[in-house]
Amino acid sequence: MTSYLLRRTAASLVLLWLVVSLTFLFLHLAPGGVSGGWVNLDQAGSVEQRQRLERVYGLDRPLAEQYLSWLGRYARGDLGTSWTHGRPVTRVIAEALPATLLLALAATCVELGLAVPLGIWAARRRGSPTDHALRGAGLFFFSLPSFWFGLMAILAFGYLWPILPLSGMRSVDAHTLGPVGQAVDVGRHLVLPALVLGITSAGGTLRFARNSLLEVLEQDYIRTARAKGLSEARVVGVHGLRNALSPLIQLLGVNLPSLLNGALIVEVVFSWPGLGQVTLQSILTRDLPMILGTTTLAATLVILGNLTADLAQAAADPRVRHG
Amino acid sequence: MPRNVLTLLTVLLLTISAACGGGDEPTAGTDGETPGAETAAEPRSGGQAVIGVSSDIGGVNEVVTPNSLINTEILRRLFIPLVDEQPDFKTISPRLAESWEFSEDRKSLTFHLRDDVVWSDGEPVTSADVVFSYRAWTDPDVAWEAAYALEAVEAVEAMDEHTVRFDFSRAYSTQLLDTAAGAVILPEHAWGQKPFSEWRTAGDWFRENLVVSGPFDLESWTPQQEVVLKRNPLYYEEGLPYLDRLVLRVVPNQANQLTQLLTGDLDLVIQLSPDDVERVESTAGVRIIPYWTRGYIALGTNQRRAPFGAVDVRRAITYGIDRQTLVDSIWGEYGRVIASPIPPNIWAYNQDVEPLPYDPDEARRLLDEAGWTDSDGDGVRDKDGEALAIDLVTNTGNRQREDAMVLIQEQLGRIGVAVTPQAMEFNTMIQNVMGGDFDAVITGWQIPTTFDFRYAFASEEIDGGSNIIAYSNPEMDQLLDDIRSAPNLEEAKPLIDRLQVMLQRDQPYTFLWQSQRLVGVRNRLQGVEPNHLFSLFDARHWWVEDGAE
Question: So what's the ipTM on this one?
Answer without folding.
Answer: 0.77
